[in-house]
Amino acid sequence: MSKALSRGARFAVLAAAFGGLLFDGFELGLMPLASLSVSKALLGTGYTSTLGGDWFARFTAALMLGAAIGGIALGSLGDRIGRARAMGVSILFYSVFAGLGAWVRTQEQMLALRFLVGLGVGGVWPNAVALVAESWPDKSRPAVAGMMGAAINAGILLLSQIAQVWSVTAVSWRWLFQLAAAPAILALVVLVFLPESPTWLASRIQPAGKKRAAPLRELFRPPLLRITLVGILLGSIPLVGAWAASKWMIPWADKIGGAVQPDYKAMTQGWWAFGAILGSLAGAQVASLVGRRLSYFLISLGSLALTLTMFQLTAPLRPSFLPIVFAQGFVATLFFGWLPLYLPELFPTHVRATGSGISYNVGRFATAAGVLVAGFFFTSLGGSYPAVGAAAALIYGLGMVAIWFAPETSKQSLNA
């Protein structure tokens, strides 16, 4: 049995993990908000609305590809050197490379940096979730899992509020990337002071002569292979839906509303993020009340209906647009409170960070591909944001089927 952390140490772990994911969300929300402004500035007279949307897809795909690789590599690092240290390394990654974006001179330079930022963005989630899940008692896990899901969206909301005060435009956007470097301070605090998961420390003590297989190898062979594949599918669907479908609403709002109200894109992101915070907080509670599988099915159904409504039955500047954006943000991000509760329950301690990281971040490979495909359709459809958003929203229908292949883990402890 592992020795429990003190109450103060548990809250320190929760605060550090929340902060790491908060700034993770800040990085995730940065390019949807700034992409068109960056492209206008760097492309100059060569900029067109369709080309701006195409570059938005490229920047998003680069970030997702980096996050997929980082989530696997740095999630695996967390099983080897500890959750806290791997989380600190991840935060340092996204802070440094985001800050360097303030000095880019070409779109290609920004594209490379978004990939490198993604490495850190992907690495924070599995280590933060595993560290918090293992540091708090089972009865507290729905509440802390909800906080982990809400943290990312709180970062997006924070960014939107800052951008409403200081506008992000084609002549004023570099300051935003300089600000994105600030979490490097948190990374240093985590690396030096944060206590390690007692469950992970106990798992390092092996009987004499016994050696475990590498986490990646163990996850992709029986008996964990089927669990790993199920986790990947369930982690992929919300991510593809969020980035290949939902996030098109921000450049859409910029294109339609920006000429009338320069901060309309930030306002749109703020309404979405506020709904998303509430949804993330509620996701784990819903899973606890109605069961892991039924809740995932209902969230998938609601996300499909609301995303189609957002892109087909309303539009930026209409009175109904922002309330529907809020509702879509609430329902579609119930997933991101559900996942921090469910994914750690699938895997034993010695492969938990790697398994959670693979489940969540392999979905980002699919997301990168999905965003590029959506970008292709965006261009071929003449730059229609409603058409590409509605088409990509159909991924949520797959979630309504996939969840019935997953185990129900409501009664499972994390002490194994």
Explain the layout of strands and helices.
Layout: H1 7-43, H2 49-81, H3 83-99, H4 107-135, H5 141-165, H6 174-179, H7 184-193, H8 198-203, H9 215-219, H10 225-245, H11 249-257, H12 264-290, H13 292-312, H14 321-332, H15 335-346, H16 352-380, H17 385-392, H18 395-402
CATH topology name, in short, is Growth Hormone, Chain: A
- Uncertain stretches of 5 or more adjacent residues: none
Order of helices and strands: HHHHHHHHHHHHHHHHHH
> What is the 3D form?
globular
How much strand content do the residues show?
A: under 5%
Average per-residue pLDDT, rounded, comes to 90
CATH superfamily membership:
MFS general substrate transporter like domains
Q: Radius of gyration, rounded? A: 20 Å
Top keywords for this entry?
416 residues; mainly alpha; 18 helices; globular
Question: Can you walk me through this structure?
Answer:
- The longest helix has 37 residues, at 7-43.
- The model has no long low-confidence stretch (mean pLDDT 90).
- It is built from 18 helices and no strands.
- The chain is mainly alpha-helical.
- The protein starts with 6 loop residues before the first helix and ends in a 14-residue tail after the last helix.
- It has a single domain (7-199, 215-405), classed as Growth Hormone, Chain: A.
- 76% of the residues lie in helices and 0% in strands.
- The radius of gyration is 20 Å and the shape is globular.
What's the short version?
The chain is mostly helical. It contains 18 helices and no strands.
